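queue> pop job 88
queue> type: inverse folding (structure -> sequence)
queue> payload:
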């Protein structure tokens, strides 16, 4: 069945940095991109690491053992969207420039080389350049075929073609300053057309009738006429909207108890508890006082009560988080992580960790500490005074906190002006994304001033290992090294999200990772279901 406009609460109407799909770091925005733009490959099951063709007609031909070349054959007949024709309005200048033309191999080549161009005035903002810099050459063989050669064997290369930001864009949409930070430039080849963005209110998407439909165009997906992401971060607002069916699905922001009550009152609701790949972490500058002293970094690591964070921010609905999310294949075994200092929760073990933290802090001269918290989400900012008290009590020293915008956090990282930040970060799928850009000396997200040749060697080794189990072992070595000898990014915890959806919402699939909104192609609203009665009409 097809029809209806799905309504859900979210942050997709917030623009914290840029709309440019190759430059944004804000997860909800590239969730929007994932509905509008396509990639060469896509994740069919991110948690299990299952990759499938998207724009590619089939999985790339891999040449060499270990491989150095990949031959990509694109689907013929894939066309860029025509928003004006679909929405019944005059086409924008950008749409006129594209003219609904066919996507070709030149578009793929351009999208990758754009992120490899160190001469671009926007070069510092290509945070995923570490993926494309492994490419030695891209040859367009014909209209639908590319031959990509890497500089050396790279185990996660197919992942790079499917990653959450590997979007293929048209050259015509990029301005002279190498930006496409405009609503009018949001024209892709994906299943949904970006109708309207009303900042901090809502973001609206409609069905792309020209979408190529992966391997089953006859299914006429998306089944939905569209979806609307309504900006909402207050639990009371979300609960009221869900009870009145003004949104079709909901999850808590800070207080999970209303979701628990709802489930008890309405057993017919669809209910799913699932971890989120995004997580809370602290970033420390290792190249300037006081955090250039490893004793101070370790003291903060040991003094931080991660269980307190879970209890205070998510009322117990969370999980301890190491250098890699516990959701994915590459994480340290949970039983190992929970036995490590800083992650132990037993009373006696916790006392031992706090005592060692104070000893290290005093040996380092008891320096003053300032922590900069992000204001997004509000529940994290509300925790700042509690964290201040907790560190002061554990260390016995002076701790100050301040709360700034998430955009200021990002800019402070880029400029190197924030020594100790405390914020959410987006989670990833592959081991390389969790580790290489953050901790390699040339990493695009290395905001720590970290330079460690031994760590660089380990990070490069995991890239060269094609055996999945051996690569995971190398990943474990990196994570142990980070926890034993580096402690530049202190990973805290991640929430367990409690979702509820009305029974009429069919194909409901909670999104664990940002950048996977293309899964909404399988969703539909069953207007014949009894629970649909009383749902307000309209989008």
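queue> result:
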């Amino acid at each position: 069945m097809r029809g209806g406009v799905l309504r859900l609460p979210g942050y997709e109407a917030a623009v914290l940095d840029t709309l440019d799909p190759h430059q944004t770091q804000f997860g909800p925005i590239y969730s929007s991109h994932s509905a509008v733009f396509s990639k060469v490959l896509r994740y069919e099951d991110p948690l299990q690491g299952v990759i499938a063709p998207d724009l590619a007609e089939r999985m790339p031909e891999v040449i060499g053992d270990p491989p150095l070349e990949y031959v990509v054959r694109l689907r013929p007949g894939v066309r860029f969207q025509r928003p004006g024709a679909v929405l019944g309005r005059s086409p924008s200048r950008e749409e006129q420039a594209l003219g609904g033309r066919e996507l070709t191999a030149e578009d793929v080549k351009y999208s990758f080389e754009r992120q490899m161009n160190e001469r671009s005035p926007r070069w510092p903002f290509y945070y995923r350049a570490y993926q494309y810099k492994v490419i030695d050459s891209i040859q367009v063989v014909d209209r639908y075929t590319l031959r990509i050669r890497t500089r050396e064997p790279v185990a996660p290369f197919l992942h790079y073609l499917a990653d959450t930001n590997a979007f293929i864009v048209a050259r015509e949409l990029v301005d002279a300053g190498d930006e496409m930070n405009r609503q009018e430039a949001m024209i892709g080849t994906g299943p949904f057309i970006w109708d309207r963005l009303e900042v901090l209110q809502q973001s609206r998407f409609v069905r792309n009738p020209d979408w190529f439909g992966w391997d089953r165009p006859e299914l006429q997906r998306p089944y939905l006429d569209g979806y609307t992401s309504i900006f909402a971060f207050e639990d009371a607002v979300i609960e009221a909207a869900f009870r009145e069916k003004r949104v079709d699905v909901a999850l808590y922001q800070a207080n999970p108890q209303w979701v628990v009550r709802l489930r008890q009152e309405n057993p017919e609701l669809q209910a799913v508890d699932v971890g989120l790949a995004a997580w809370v972490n602290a970033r420390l500058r290792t190249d300037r006082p006081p955090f250039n002293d490893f004793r101070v970094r370790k003291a903060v690591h040991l003094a931080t009560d991660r269980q307190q964070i879970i209890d205070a921010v998510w009322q117990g609905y969370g999980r301890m988080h190491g250098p890699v999310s516990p959701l994915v294949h590459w994480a340290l075994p949970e039983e190992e992580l929970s036995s490590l200092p800083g992650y132990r929760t037993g009373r006696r073990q916790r006392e031992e960790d706090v005592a060692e933290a104070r000893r290290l802090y005093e040996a380092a001269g008891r320096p003053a500490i300032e922590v900069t918290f992000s204001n997004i989400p509000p529940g994290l900012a509300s925790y700042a005074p509690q964290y201040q008290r907790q560190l002061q009590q554990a260390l016995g020293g002076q701790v100050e906190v301040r709360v700034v915008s998430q955009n200021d956090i990002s800019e402070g990282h880029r400029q190197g002006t924030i020594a100790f930040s405390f914020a959410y970060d987006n989670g990833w799928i592959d081991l390389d994304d969790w580790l290489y850009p953050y901790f390699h000396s040339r990493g695009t997200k290395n905001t720590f001033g970290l330079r460690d040749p031994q760590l660089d060697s380990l990070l490069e080794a995991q890239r060269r290992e094609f055996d999945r189990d051996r690569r995971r072992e190398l990943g474990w070595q990196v994570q142990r090294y980070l926890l034993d000898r580096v402690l530049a990014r202190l990973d805290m915890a991640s929430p367990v999200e409690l979702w509820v959806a009305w029974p009429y919402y069919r194909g409901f699939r909670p999104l664990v990772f940002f950048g996977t909104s293309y899964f909404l192609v399988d969703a539909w609203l069953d207007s014949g279901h009894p629970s649909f009665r009383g749902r307000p009409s309209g989008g």
